Amino acid sequence: MLQSGLLYLCSIIITLYFAHVQPTTAQIMAPWEVDALRAIKGSLLDPLGRLDSWNRGDPCVGNWSRVICYNATASDGYFHVQELQLLQLNLSGTLAPELGQLSHMKIMDFMWNSISGSIPKEVGNITSLELLLLNGNQLSGSLPEEIGFLPNLNRIQIDQNHISGSIPRSFANLNNTKHFHMNNNSLSGQIPPELSRLPSLVHLLLDNNNLSGYLPPALSKLPKLLIIQLDNNNFSGSSIPSSYGNITTLLKLSLRNCSLEGPVPDVTGIPQLGYLDLSWNQLAGPIPSGQLASNITTVDLSHNLLNGSIPRSFSSLPNLQRLSLDNNNLDGPVPSDIWQNIDFNGNRSLVLDFHNNSLTNLSSPLTPPANVTILLSGNPICTSQNQLNISQYCQSAPVVVPGGSANNSTLCQPCSTDLPYEIILMSPIQCICAIPLYVEYRLKSPGFWDFIPYEVQFQQYLSSGLSLSLYQLEVSTFMWEEGPRLKMNLKLFPNNTALFNAKELLRLRNMFTGWLIRDSDIFGPYELIDFDPGWYNNILQRPTKSGLSTGAVVGVVIAAFAAAAILSSLITLIILRRRLKHSSKKRAAKRVPMKIDGVKDFTFEELSNCTNDFSDSALVGQGGYGKVYRGVLADGTIAAIKRAQQGSLQGSKEFFTEIELLSRLHHRNLVSLLGYCDEEDEQMLVYEYMPNGTLRDNLSGCFSIYLAGTDMQPLTFLLPKQH
Q1: What residues pair up with 116 in beta bridges, in sequence order?
Q2: Is the Cβ–Cβ distance between 651 and 678 less than 8 Å?
Q3: Which domain holds residue 458?
Q4: Are residues 537 and 552 in the same domain?
C-alpha cells in the first residue's frame, strides 16, 4: 500500500509540475513568428476548427496543427517555422501580410482551400522559400513582383485561382525555379520573353488563361525545358516559332485552341517528343513528312486547315496511341499500315481519327487488329460505290477516353469489420488484411492518351519513388479530367503488417507534401489533392518535424528529473531489497496462479501474433529493461507491449507483485495496465497505447530513473498523457 500510495503521489506531482513549467517554453520559437502565426490564423476562417491548437503554448512544442519547426535553433537562439502544411482544411478568409515574417520557411502550402483576396507582396521576404503552393483557392489580383526575387524558389503553383494581370518580368530572376504552374487563371498580356533566361525551368504550364501577343521564339533557348503547355489562350495572328522544333529536351508541346496561324512546325528534330497537340487552331498547309520520335504516343492536329495527304511516316511509330487528323482538308488515300509496328499484346490500343476530311480511296484493303479504331465518317470514301467493306469505319461514333477502376476481385474471406481493414490484393502473403492510407493524386500533364498500357509502369514508378514494394500501392480508380489531366485514387498499404507505424506515416506524407518523388518523363508533373490518413488521423495531428535538440530537451526536463528523483529513490529503496534478493536466482519455471480484475493473462502466442512475431516494424522503443512493441490485440485494441530481456527477468512472485501494484494505479493522466504474459521464459506487460511520440517529441511519454551504484532494474514513471 505504501508503494502504491507513493507512486500515485509521484504521478500527481509530475503532472502538476509539467502543467506549471509548460508556459516557460513560450520563448522556444522566435516571438515574432508566434505573433505572425496568430495573425495568419486571425485572417483565416476555420469553420472546422482545424487550427484551434494555435493558441496553446509554444508552436514548436505545443503541437500547433500543421506547423512544422526546424529541429535545431538558428544563430539567433530561437526555433523557426520550416513548413506550413495547411492542405485542404476548408479554410477561407485571406492570406495575412505577416506571412513575410516567417523568414526561415521553406514550404508554404495552402492548397485546396477557399482562400480569397490577393497574394501578399510580403511573401517576397521569405528568402528561404522553396515551395509556394497556393493552387485550388479563390485568390485574385495580380502576381506580386516581389516573388521574382526569391532566390531558392523551386516550385510556384498558383493554378486554379482567379489571378489576373500580366506575368511579372521579375520572374526572369528565378534561377532555381523548375516548375511554373500558373494554369487556370485569368493572366493576360504577352509571355515575357525574359523568361528565356531561366536556367532551371522544366515545366511551363500556362494553359487556360487570357494570354495574347506572340509566342516568344526565345523559349527555345531554355536548356532544361520538358513541357510547354499553353492551351486555351489567344495568340491571334501569331505562328508557332520554327525554333520550337529545336528544343531538343522537349517531351510535350501542347498549344491547343490558341488561334495560331501558319504552318505546322517541323518537330522531327526533337528526339524524345512524346506528345504533340496543335488542334483547334488555323494552321494551314501540308503535314511535315519527316519521321517523328519513336516514343510519341499522341499526335493531335485536328480542327485546322491542313491539306495534302497523310504522310506515310506515321506508319513507323511503335508507341502511338492516338492520331487525330479530323476536321481538316486532307485528301488522297487512307493509309492502311499505320499499326504495323505496334505490339498489341496486353491492353494496347490505337485510335485513328480521320473523319471530316476529303479522303477518297484506300492505299490497300483495311485489315486492322481488333484493338485499332478507325473513324472515316464525313469523307468521300464513305459514299463511293467503289469502296467495299469499310462501312464499319464510316459510322459516327464518339471516341471515349479510357478510364476505370482496378479489378478488386478476390477469393479471400472478408476482413474483420472491427477496424477499416482491406485485403492487400497483390501481397505475397495471401489474404492479408491491413488498414490503408488514401491518397488523391493527379497527373497534370501526362505524356499519353490512354493510361491502361502504362498502369503497371506507373505503379512501378510511384512505388519506387515512395520506397515501397510494388504490392503496397494500388490504383483503385482513375478518370480523365479537362486538360487533359488524369486524376487517381490511390491506396497505400503497410509492408505485410496490419498497420503503418507513426514513423512510416509521417515519411510518406512528407514525400508527397515536400514533392520529394522524382519527376517522370512519361507521367509528367503531379499534384497532391488530398492525403487522407483516415483511421490513422490521430497519429498525424501533431507536427512532423517539430522537435527540440538534445540540449533543449535536457534544459526543459532537468527540473522534472530533479523533482522526481527524491520520490523515486524512496520508492526504489522500498523494493530494492526484494529485487536484489532474487537477482541472481534462476526464474522459477512454475507459474504462480493470479487473477486481477481488469488485467488479462495473455499467452505468448497472442502477443506474438499481434506484433507480427515482435518484428522491427512494430518496435516503438527500448531501454535497459527490454523493448516496447506496438500491437493490435484480438479485439482491435492498440497496445504497447513491454517485453523484458533475459537479464531483466524477475521471479514470478516478484513479477506478479509488480503487476498488482500497477493494477492499483488509476489516474486520468496515466496509461492503464491491460494485461501481462508470464510463460515460455517471457515476462511482458501490456499497457494502453499512447500514440503521442516520445519525451523528446512531446515532453511526455516514458522515462526511467536509475539509482547510481546499484544493479537494479529501472523504475518506470509514466508522464502525463496529452489531451
Answers
A1: 94
A2: no
A3: 417-521+533-541
A4: no
